[in-house]
Fold this protein.
Amino acid sequence: MGGNFSVSGNGADNGASALVSDKPDLKTTLRAGAIAGVSGAVCIWIYEALIWVGAQHLMPLAGIPRNATGLVFGKAVQDALGIWAYVLGTGIHFVFAIAWGILFALIWPYFRRRGYEATFVALFYAIFAWIAMHVAISIASDNHPNYFDPAVIIGGFMSHFCFTVPLALIVKKRLAP
């Protein structure tokens, strides 16, 4: 009876199925991260439309897609590009969101094996992502809000929670053993 190492899920595999399914292949991980990143990118734009545009009146709705262009290259480049600032800003937004999604998908199995909930990890991941992105923006451009302003910090963390929580839940579901 012993020595049956089936991965059929019948419980007679002596734990081998947990070892096999615990490490998703790279293609599955990359796909899960990319899908989660795109979903998170859409969610953060919904947050920005509702909060930054609708509630706080910080920018017009049309300013959301071009915002990344200004943050990375400065307001002068953003204005000089005209309509292309929307295309470039959208590209920047989604490329970085996908990269953050893939990074989360790569690290998620480590936290899952230790029993952490994805949304819990996502809260800390949001803070890390916000800090990393805004340090990079500060280095790349001088066109950014005051990152020491508590309202900017809180608003930034909230928007990134709206990005990382759905991202984490999608990765968790797609990489479930």
About this structure: The CA atoms of residues 40 and 166 lie 6 Å apart.
